Amino acid sequence: MITVHIYTPDQRHEWDTFVERSNNGTMFHQQRFLDYHPDGKWNWHHLMFRENGKLVAVLPAGVGKDGALWSPTGASYGSIVVADEAFERCLHIVDAFIDYARSAGFTDAYLIPPPLIYTLDYSQHVEYAMLYRKATFELHYISHAIDLKRGSAFLDHFDQTARKSVRKILREGRITIRESDDYATFHTILVENKARHDTKPTHTLEDLLKLRELMPEKLRLNMVYLDDEPIAGSLLFLANRKVVLCFYNMLRYEYEHLRPIYLIMYETVRWAIENNYEWVDIGVSQDTKADDPMTPSLGLISFKERFDSRGILRSTYHLDLR
Asked: Does 296 lie in the same domain as 184?
């Protein structure tokens, strides 16, 4: 029998170790990541699942203003984290979650698992178990990701414009890219960039510095320089052993004609291949100004496809617990 209980801070090491060793966990599921949020910002309701005392699943979650249980809360991906389990056990885990949520008084639960590419050994047992128990899809977003199976020949599979731009930048040598610890300059560019689109960054500078302190091995900041002047940057989240996530790609638009983002994409893919990752996730491609949140940004998608990326779904599962 699988039992469910609320996480307590003294179980932090057990939780994070389980996520690191799981089949579908990411940095976003770890308590180390969630700890960057100030105390009291979210109404946490993290759950742990045990079978005969052994931890078999975890669910990072919080209670939303609507009173529903949301996973993730304060992160990009959530849902139930498991080892590479047989379907029957995943079904028992989902059933235990549903029973718990109902007994706790929740009428709705929303779960957003990582896309399939994040699973170390491809499996959607948990997702199918939720659908079998009559979960419905609330939303789908389209993300784009680059399959690194091309190896060292990856540049040959960028489109002609991207290939020519990258080779020109590398040949001329004025624009360079390197790992940096200059989060302050990067965040300044990030704020300027987001303001152009009437938005604000998800993270403050203090947030990024806190994340760097909590999990330095999971963040990589690359900065692009024209001579010695910073003109663009990219913050990578090393989400798990399989996927590098481009969380922010930003530039100073007065240098857009120099195409620094092309160099960023080249270096990101090159570094990820060198370090034995399998995918580079370059994020969702939605038109954030549209009334329908699922509206694709066709221009953004077309740009991402220049780098040999493919569409992957980021879906929200809704469980009506009434």
From this structure: yes
Query: What mean pLDDT comes out for the span 274-300?
Result: 93
Beta bridge partners of 226: 175, 229
222 within 8 A of 186, measured Cβ to Cβ: no
- Residue 256: band (very low, low, confident or very high) from pLDDT cuts 50, 70, 90: very high
Is residue 198 in a domain? yes
Looking at the domain assignment, is residue 320 inside a domain?
no
Q: What DSSP string runs through 4-64? A: EEE--GGGHHHHHHHHHHSSS--GGGSHHHHTTSPTTSS-B--EEEEETTEEEEEE--EE-
106 and 195 inside one domain: no
Q: Which domain holds residue 22?
A: 2-134
pTM: 0.94
Residue among 174, 214, 169, 208 nearest 188 (CA): 208
Q: Same domain for 114 and 148?
A: no
| Average pLDDT value for residue range 251-269 | 96
Is 108 a residue whose pLDDT tops 90?
A: yes
Alpha-carbon distances of 47 from 112, 144, 275, 282, 287, rounded to whole Å: 15, 30, 33, 30, 34
Query: Is the residue at 216 inside a domain?
Result: yes
The three-state secondary structure class of 215 is: coil
Task: Please name the helix (run of DSSP H) or strand (run of DSSP E) that holds residue 273, with its range, or none.
Answer: helix 260-274
pLDDT of 194: 86
- DSSP 8-state secondary structure symbol assigned to residue 216: G
Q: How far apart are CA 28 and CA 41, in angstroms?
A: 17
**Digit-coded pLDDT (tens) for 173-222:** 999 999 999 999 999 999 998 888 788 888 999 999 999 999 999 999 99
Instruction: Decide: 84 and 51 in contact? Cβ < 8 Å.
Output: no
